[in-house]
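$ ./design --mode recover --in tokens.txt
reading tokens...
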């Protein structure tokens, strides 16, 4: 273990020196190569009034609510679109819907839209806009990665499988302002679900199937506090105050300039120069010092950082669960948290992070336990498993590849894991990195050799948001799983959970996570925290524990 520790320290020092001398190059994604050097990302026209400047990071793959599945896109959509309800940390509250009623059996939800709810072009938001959006999301032709999100609604699952037309989704407009939703069964978290951007309304006369409309300022309309007025690929986008928003009097910012700087050292330089006023990305090697100085704020995060193993891997050894478990057991999670990421993260020995409770009010993670993992590496046990599987000291396995998206933190973690697998198991590991958009396509299509970086943040405060992406969708693996995971027993447990409430529902979740862990196709690394650099002049912003940034009530102080 001392040998691993010294090697990790060397890795950290190398990362620090590399970050200090790194040049910006190309349109990178998460933070390895900058798409906008310090001082760039200027809007096409001068912005008048109060302008908040934030760093968005990667250029979002899409800003279409039905197609987006990434956090960078969510941070824009959360501020441009609004669902029926919203949540600022105190639970769901009325948003575009001024009130709603639920039938005694919990299956019929009737939402009444605000009379003053309007789109950014002044047209009224209609109940039919929700019907169109939700039908579009579950329609297999749309290929939404979040189609399963609507499974609680009647016929949604059958529609995604192509067994029923989208028109049979359990949602209808009773009139211009009344939306009726029929659920397939009781749903304990439906209020939280309708807060999520995927369930925002969309205009049928505006949407194109490619999703490009949402990045075109001439076409995009939205119903939230801001709307898109400028967009330059890989450089910046501008959100401007929506004068027709029903709560516009509480929107204090005139514009939000969202820069797309992805190099971590450039982000910090830009922040210190006042070129950005808010970012949740900072150089990994600078985090301890920024925390100590009080500049960096550490916030709770319901989020897990993990690796996935491709279930369709061409590597024969990885088809043996003993090999998969050995790899996971050989990783020193505590060392990664203490010597690599160093921002208050904690070792992950299970998939679902702390902070979610079951029907008895118990923390899900504490109740489920740690399975076969420990904070530090279990080298001897891992070596024994490899030998039992017929690969003593890693002989016969060949070189394994770890795929990650370009980012200083992801690189540092991958290098640490690479060294741990070499030292503890004798494995040869090659690191492969790709720009964010390319990486998403590669991983989510299962087009990689062995291991890939992954991470998941809860879309709502319920264990289901972590587990349901491993369910098959329409009989095929869910691309969001990243590992092409398919297991009929897992699907059956999740189907049971979807149809249940209370203790029966959570018992199915506990069993589902156990099965997922025992299959060994996921390797939990750490439970994340949110690290934020924010100017004292920018106040009133809200960052939820599920990672969504809301600027509708933010303001700039002189």
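writing sequence...
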């Amino acid at each position: 273990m001392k040998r691993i520790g010294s090697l990790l320290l060397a890795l950290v020092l190398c990362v620090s020196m590399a970050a200090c001398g790194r040049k910006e190059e190309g349109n990178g994604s998460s933070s390895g190569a900058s798409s906008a050097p310090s001082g760039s990302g200027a809007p096409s026209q001068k912005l008048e009034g109060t302008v908040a400047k934030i760093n968005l990071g990667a250029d979002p793959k899409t800003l279409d609510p039905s197609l987006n599945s990434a956090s960078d896109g969510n941070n824009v959509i959360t501020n441009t679109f609004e669902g029926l309800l919203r949540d600022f940390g105190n639970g769901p509250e009325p948003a575009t819907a001024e009130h709603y009623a639920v039938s005694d059996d919990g299956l019929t939800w009737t939402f009444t839209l605000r009379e003053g709810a309007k789109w950014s072009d002044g047209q009224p938001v209609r109940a039919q806009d929700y019907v169109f959006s939700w039908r579009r999301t579950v329609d297999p032709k749309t290929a939404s990665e979040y189609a399963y999100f609507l499974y609680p609604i009647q016929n949604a699952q059958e529609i995604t499988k192509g067994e029923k037309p989208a028109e049979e989704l359990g949602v209808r407009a009773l009139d211009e302002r009344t939306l009726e939703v029929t659920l397939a069964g009781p749903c304990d978290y439906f209020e939280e679900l309708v807060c999520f951007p995927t369930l925002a309304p969309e205009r049928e006369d505006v949407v194109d199937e490619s999703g490009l409309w949402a990045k075109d300022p001439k076409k995009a309309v939205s119903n939230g506090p801001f709307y898109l007025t400028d967009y330059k690929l890989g450089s910046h986008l501008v959100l401007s105050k929506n004068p027709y928003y029903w709560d516009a009097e509480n929107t204090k910012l005139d514009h939000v300039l969202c820069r797309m700087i992805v190099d971590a050292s450039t982000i910090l330089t830009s922040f210190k120069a006042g070129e950005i006023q808010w970012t949740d990305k900072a150089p990994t090697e600078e985090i301890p010092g920024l925390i100590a100085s009080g500049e960096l704020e550490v916030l709770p995060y319901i989020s897990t950082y993990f690796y996935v193993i491709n279930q369709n891997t061409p590597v024969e050894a990885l088809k043996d669960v003993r090999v998969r478990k050995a790899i996971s057991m050989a990783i020193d999670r505590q060392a990664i948290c203490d010597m690599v990421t160093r921002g208050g993260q904690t070792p992950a020995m299970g998939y679902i992070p702390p902070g979610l409770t079951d029907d008895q009010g118990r923390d899900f993670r504490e109740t489920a336990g740690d399975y076969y993992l420990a904070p530090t590496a279990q080298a001897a046990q891992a070596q024994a498993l490899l030998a039992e599987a017929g690969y003593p000291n890693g002989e016969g396995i060949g070189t394994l590849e770890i795929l990650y998206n370009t980012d200083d933190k992801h690189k540092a973690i991958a290098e640490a894991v690479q060294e741990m697998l070499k030292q503890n198991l004798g494995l040869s590991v090659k690191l492969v990195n790709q720009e964010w958009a390319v990486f998403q396509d590669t991983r989510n299509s299962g087009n990689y050799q062995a291991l890939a970086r992954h991470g998941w943040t809860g879309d709502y405060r319920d264990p289901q948001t972590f587990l349901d992406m491993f369910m098959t969708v329409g009989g095929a693996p869910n691309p969001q799983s990243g590992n092409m995971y398919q297991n009929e027993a897992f699907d059956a447990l999740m189907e049971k959970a979807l149809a249940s409430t209370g203790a029966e529902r959570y018992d199915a979740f506990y069993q589902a996570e156990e099965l997922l862990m025992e299959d060994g196709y996921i390797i939990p690394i750490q439970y994340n925290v949110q690290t934020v650099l924010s100017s004292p002049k920018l106040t009133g912003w809200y960052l939820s524990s599920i990672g969504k940034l809301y600027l509708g009530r933010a303001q700039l102080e002189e």
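exit 0
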